[in-house]
Write a structure and sequence with these properties.
Layout: H1 8-22, H2 24-58
Helix pairs in contact: 1-2
């Protein structure tokens, strides 16, 4: 896993140092706040995706230029 140029070990060291500097109570509060933010972001992205899907379904389908006006498949010659 590579997140912003950092591997798993680098991220773990940063989290450990943050835990030691902030202390257990502040670290737990910050983790809880971060979890709420992630939940809210996921919910917002899901709402946006649902709205885009609904807009896509509301638009009438127009035939593509490269398709024939009929829905019949092209006829194959007999051999």
């Amino acid at each position: 896993m590579n997140f912003m140029g950092m591997g798993v070990m680098e991220i773990a060291v940063i989290l450990l140092v943050a835990f030691l500097v902030l202390g257990p109570s502040k670290s737990i509060d910050m983790a809880r706040t971060a979890g709420k933010m992630v939940r809210d972001l996921r919910r917002s992205f899901a709402d946006i995706a649902a709205a885009v899907d609904l807009e896509h379904l509301d638009q009438p389908a127009s035939p593509r230029k490269d398709q024939d006006a009929t829905d019949d498949p092209p006829q194959q010659g007999s051999r």
